[in-house]
Design a protein that fits this description.
single chain, alpha+beta, 3-stranded antiparallel sheet, two-stranded antiparallel sheet, about 25% strand
Length: about 190
């Protein structure tokens, strides 16, 4: 689940050498999001989910987000929700943005977030979704390959726990401080 971010993009240039020939590969330009927060959820066999949760709670290696230089800044375990549908669980989950960003959006009672879900057989009514080439086929460093999978986007609205509720107070009844007085005309009558 992702939502409005601070849009801090970091630009990075990477170089690589071909393993067989040693020749330099072209410089590639990459962009990364700084201070962005994403929530990932899994749905499936409960026994497998319990094993995965145990592995997340007791990792063999330091977890990282995309690059080894990007370890998570806070707990990545948001719990197990047995029997719950993934999309509904994500929609019901608290907004995970950092406190400083929630405060920046304090004028917003709620926030629209985009939920990306793997397209299933029931998603045909809304179209096939987008084809994304990120399904690993081979992890061989000499020839990594990725296959296509369908992804559908949904929008969920979640409350902002740091919203400034003072702007939404119940309106006070009108008060006329002099309404009980009798008006006099210029002649004093």
């Amino acid at each position: 689940m992702c939502g409005p971010s601070c849009d801090t993009r970091i630009r990075d240039f990477q170089t690589a050498h071909h393993d067989d020939t040693g020749k330099s590969m072209p410089v590639s330009e990459r962009f990364y999001l700084a201070d962005a927060v994403f929530v990932a959820g899994l749905e499936g066999d409960e026994d497998l989910l319990v094993q995965l949760l145990a592995a997340v709670r007791n990792p063999v290696f330091l977890p990282f987000l995309g690059r080894r230089s990007c370890p998570p800044s806070r707990n990545i375990d948001l719990g197990l929700h047995p029997g719950a549908e993934l999309a509904a669980t994500l929609a019901a989950h608290e907004w995970q943005a950092s406190d400083w960003y929630r405060e920046r959006r304090r004028k917003d009672e709620s926030v629209d977030l985009t939920v990306l879900l793997e397209a299933g057989p029931d998603d045909g009514a809304e179209g096939p979704g987008d084809a994304v080439r990120d399904q690993p086929i081979s992890f061989d460093p000499r020839h990594r390959r990725y296959g296509l999978r369908g992804v559908v986007a949904r929008t969920v609205t979640v409350p902002n726990p740091r919203a400034d509720r003072r702007n939404n107070r119940v309106a006070l009844p009108s008060h006329d401080a002099v309404g009980h007085l009798t008006l006099l005309d210029r002649d004093g009558a």
